[in-house]
Amino acid sequence: MPTPERTLPAWFSRTGLKAAAGVFAAMIAVAIVVTLAAFDQAAPGGSRSRGMADKTPSSPSGTMTPTSASRGVNRPVTVVGIGDSVTAGSNCNCETFLKLYATDLASQRGLRTSSVNLGVGGWTSSQLLRSLTTPGAFRDQVAKSDILLVTIGANDLVPLQSRQPSGCTTTCFSPLVESVGHNVELIVAAARAAQPDHPPTILVTNYWNVFQDGDVGTAENGGSFQSWSDLLTRAANAQICDAARRSGATCVDLYGPFKGDGSTNPTSQLAADGDHPSSAGHQLIASVLLANTPLQIP
Fold it and tell me: Whole-model pTM?
């Protein structure tokens, strides 16, 4: 008699084989995952794959800062100040707003900063522009800036100071004021051209007064002159800020912080000459600049 055929168990059929293979493969996958997880925990520091990007550096407070991300905390941010005697810190014998700003920026953003003060007492916007467009040490220093602070224009208006207020109204001073604005726009463009591959963040300030102010200004020049110089300052400030914005820089208003709507006496913020910032004035300028600094520094 023929030998009876042996009947294969149901799990050994074609369908059963596929199911068993699937179960077996799943068991192998689980084993691999468990093994890799154990290996990852045993790695030094528990770090992930070296192929993954590091997290953006954070500030000491733990808050993520775009500035730190763009620069990297190991590279100093160079702050350069250019302009007139306000930048230079004349008649104060104190730490300038430039130095204070760089220090405060480092503290607030979790950065390392350095500062270079290129302010020159008495400079006009034309002199600054000429220095920026002439190859040499000055232009080279500006080209190294990550943040450039610009304060210029008041000395351009000195020729008007001897004019009686009634003899130089808006029609009289407008051409000179407009020239300041034009030069500020060219100054910003020249600063960018000095380092086209790495344009700096540029902050341009205006003024609380282009001449003396506070108690000293009133005592030496009289109330009518002070009212006229305030009108002149507002006109110059408008030109400076318009020029800064047209050229893509940030305009930082100093009139409001020093004088409010114009009725605040700024004497406590001024040096003994009534013209330049005192130590408190430099502190104020630094804080206003910091508040207006973009989060992202190129």
Answer: 0.76
